[in-house]
Amino acid sequence: MDGLECVKRMNDESKPKVDLILMDLVMPNMSGMDAMKTLRDAGYSKDALPIVAVTANALPEEREACMEAGFNEFVTKPLKKDGLVDICKRFIFEVVD
């Protein structure tokens, strides 16, 4: 799914709601940054819909730009299983101690 397809999917009320988006920053038709901004402008707040930037670019400036733009988190590729589990725990699952 590219950025434009993601935005269309989120605006389709006949589709089930999602709890978390892992958004690649480099996609055809619409970048991950533009897709995230479009969703935020459409009313999907950081609390209501966590969006995590996924990229191969590990530069600190890229992370800072993503966080300032409205992403909830920033992770680099390759995303390992433990990293994905940590993201899900943080943004989806209620962790019981």
From TrEMBL:
InterPro entries: CheY-like_superfamily, Sig_transdc_resp-reg_receiver
Residue list for modification 4-aspartylphosphate: D24
Keywords: Phosphoprotein, Two-component regulatory system
Domain Response regulatory intervals: 1-92
Origin: domain of life: Eukaryota
Entry keyword Phosphoprotein: yes
GO biological process, alphabetically ordered: phosphorelay signal transduction system
CDD domains: REC_hyHK_CKI1_RcsC-like
PROSITE patterns: RESPONSE_REGULATORY
PANTHER family assigned to the protein according to its UniProt record, in alphabetical order: HYBRID SIGNAL TRANSDUCTION HISTIDINE KINASE J
Protein name per Swiss-Prot or TrEMBL: CheY-like superfamily
Source species: Catenaria anguillulae PL171
